[in-house]
From TrEMBL:
<feature type="transmembrane region" description="Helical">
    <location>
        <begin position="178"/>
        <end position="201"/>
    </location>
</feature>
<feature type="transmembrane region" description="Helical">
    <location>
        <begin position="146"/>
        <end position="166"/>
    </location>
</feature>
<dbReference type="InterPro" id="IPR010761">
    <property type="entry name" value="Clc_prot-like"/>
</dbReference>
<feature type="transmembrane region" description="Helical">
    <location>
        <begin position="227"/>
        <end position="252"/>
    </location>
</feature>
<keyword id="KW-0812">Transmembrane</keyword>
<dbReference type="GO" id="GO:0016020">
    <property type="term" value="C:membrane"/>
</dbReference>
<keyword id="KW-0472">Membrane</keyword>
<feature type="transmembrane region" description="Helical">
    <location>
        <begin position="44"/>
        <end position="65"/>
    </location>
</feature>
<protein>
    <submittedName>
        <fullName>Uncharacterized protein</fullName>
    </submittedName>
</protein>
<keyword id="KW-1133">Transmembrane helix</keyword>
<dbReference type="Pfam" id="PF07062">
    <property type="entry name" value="Clc-like"/>
</dbReference>
Length: 310
């Protein structure tokens, strides 16, 4: 009787261990499925964030070398003045002009740092006529310096953030640094836009008495294509910043701590394989005691008993 009772207890114990093993295996599979889902979503969001960042930096670079940051239409002279960060251009107005004047009205560009341009500006200001007042925009103004200053830091933080974002799977805390770098990139780009637009909306001020009767309504100043291109770049970088927030969230869900996996080879951590292989065998591994020195024994299921079962 005692032996039968012990056998029954062993069977109950083994049955309990079998159910526990099955439950743990199901939990492991569910955990792996969630991890794979988060990993795929993380890679997609990270790729979108990096693409938007690079697109914004490329548009920023194109806008910096364009002369169409600010456009001034001078109706009396039938010319258009294009004011950029580095150079200024004068081109014929889009209105119809006589053919004999077309050759004399070709686009002419000059850099702000050209000594001849500075001398021409000084002479025009000495004359003091109304037409020379527009030439004040041909100087290297504070808003131009501000755009260049913040553009440099936009590229520095943007390139640094892209490197951190690419390497973030190696070390999950890098995802937070990725967010910080993109926030600084966004802030620098937006500040450049705000400073330039605020300054461009105001006519150039000068305290000379010879310009007291200047009528600014004769000159139509408006933002050029380069300014709008830089605004578009700021929008892309801002969208990349918000995408980086989702990237950091998904990465922290995928890997809550550094598990020693490799981001370059895409290999899973060794402990995951050990845990997975533990449940792939045909039998159950059972320890007789909690001591690590105890040797486990394996109980193999009987195929005949499974076939004979109703």
């Amino acid at each position: 009787m005692a032996k039968s009772k012990r056998n029954a207890e062993s069977v109950v114990k083994l049955d309990s261990l079998g159910r526990e093993a099955t439950l743990r295996r199901v939990q492991f599979v569910e955990k792996e499925l969630r991890r794979m889902s988060h990993a795929s979503s993380y890679k997609l969001v990270l790729a979108v964030s990096l693409f938007l960042l690079f697109a914004g930096l490329v548009l920023t670079a194109f806008s910096l070398f364009s002369a169409q940051w600010q456009v001034s239409e001078i109706g009396e002279q039938h010319v258009t003045h294009l004011h950029g960060l580095w150079k200024d251009c004068i081109e014929p107005s889009k209105e119809l002009i006589p053919l004999y004047e077309n050759s004399a009205r070709q686009e002419k560009c000059v850099y702000k740092f050209d000594p001849s341009a500075q001398e021409e500006l000084r002479k025009a200001l000495d004359i003091g006529d109304e037409a020379s007042h527009e030439l004040l925009l041909h100087r290297f103004l504070p808003q131009h310096k501000a755009v260049i200053f913040f553009a440099v830091f936009t590229f520095v933080f943007g390139l640094l953030g892209s490197i951190i974002g690419i390497c973030s799977p190696c070390f999950p805390p890098n995802s937070m640094l990725f967010v910080v770098a993109l926030f600084l990139t966004t802030a620098c780009s937006i500040l450049a836009d705000v400073i330039f637009i605020a300054a461009a909306m105001k006519p150039p001020q000068i305290k000379w008495e010879k310009f007291d009767k200047f009528d600014p309504s004769k000159y139509e100043n408006k933002l050029g294509m380069a300014a709008f291109l830089h605004l578009l770049a700021s929008g892309l970088i801002t969208t990349s910043f918000f995408s980086s927030l989702g990237t950091a969230y998904l990465l922290l869900l995928t890997r809550s701590k550094n598990d020693g996996s490799s981001c370059c080879s895409g290999m899973r951590p060794k402990r995951d394989f050990e845990e997975e292989d533990r449940w792939h065998g045909p039998g159950l591994i059972i320890r007789a005691c909690d001591d690590q020195a105890c040797k486990p024994f394996v109980i193999m299921p009987d195929p005949q008993s499974d076939d004979s079962a109703p």
